[in-house]
Amino acid sequence: MKIPVVELSDCIVCGVCVEACPEVFRLNNAGYIEVRDLKSFPQAEVNEAVKHCPADCIFWQEE
Ligand code: SF4
Q1: How far apart are CA 16 and CA 14, in angstroms?
Q2: What's the rounded Cα separation, in Å, for the pair 49 and 30?
Q3: Cα–ligand 1 centroid distance for 26 (angstroms)
Q4: Fewest 10 Å CB contacts: which of 9, 35, 47, 61?
Q5: How far apart are the C-alpha atoms of 60 and 45, rounded to whole Å?
Q6: Is 53 exposed, middle or buried (0-12, 13-18, 19+ CB in 10 A)?
């Protein structure tokens, strides 16, 4: 399965991914972006987030 991953060291916490795809990305209490624990991920919405992430730090990883 492919899962989206956020490279936190590059993330500037701009919130674009959360806006583009709140069913996958969330801001956690520690102030970091988190990928929700889902069985499957909506590819088109995640790709929107990938495309618009200003830090280019979201990518797909094969599990
Ligand atoms: S869009 Fe990219 S830089 Fe912005 S919060 Fe999401 S992962 Fe971080």
Answers
A1: 6
A2: 21
A3: 10
A4: 9
A5: 13
A6: buried
Give residue 1 CA to ligand 1 midpoint distance, Å: 22
Tell me the pLDDT of the chain averaged across its residues.
97
Residue 51 per-residue DSSP state: H
Asked whether the predicted pLDDT for residue 63 surpasses 90, the reply is no
Domains in the chain with CATH codes: 2-62 (3.30.70.20)
* Number of residues that make up the chain: 63
> What digits encode the pLDDT tens for the residues 19-48?
999 999 999 999 999 999 999 999 999 999
The atom number, within ligand 1, closest to the CA of 18 reads 6
Q: Closest residue (by CA) to atom 4 of ligand 1?
A: 14
Map tokens 């618009």 to a residue: 52
